[in-house]
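Subject: Sanity check before I submit

Could someone independently write out the structure tokens for this chain? I want to compare against mine line by line before I put it in a report. The sequence has 209 residues.
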Amino acid sequence: MVAVPGTAATPSTTARGDAAREAILDAALDRFGRYGLRRTSMEDIARQAGVSRTSIYFHFGSKDQVFRALSEHLHEESLAAMEHALNADGGVEERLRTALEARLGRFVELTATSPHGAELLDEHSRVCGDVAGAARARSLRLLQRAIRDAAAAGELDPGRVGLTAGSAAELILDCAGAVKEAGETVSARVYRRRLGQLVRVLVAGMGGR
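---
Independent answer below. Compare away.
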């Protein structure tokens, strides 16, 4: 694109590129959920996204890269929602429960509603292990800060059960993950109920009110 002298170059090409990338990820989310990673081709994603093969390979060099980018996007969204929930009004039990739902609930819903949920979990471990690890580390930092703030406000006392803010954060996140992985057929509704019960027990143990 050539800019007209004396005017700013229009960002239309970049905008189209960003829009195409978003369309590709939206299409990939749908295709992976309905057909799994193995049965979905790059051509399938491009066709559903309404972009050319050249465009999809410009943005992503392989199907694994599409899957990885989608994972990064979903983790970023859930982490932002988690942080927002932890900073919201309400009691400490409500804040923690809502934050954990925001962080993990979307993934439960995606795998529980897909006939290929087990495959997607396996492929996520294979392709996105480092992405998940980095997201876990950020989740722990957010929880640790929230627990420290709650302790300073007199809402929690992790020390009464021999925990620090850091070890309490690990326990809460690990238990929330165990509830999520209790079975392949755990629905989002069941997960929310069991998560609420779990948080209630853990908060009560740390003296929450």
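---
OP: Matches mine. For the report I'm noting this point. The chain has a mean pLDDT of 89.
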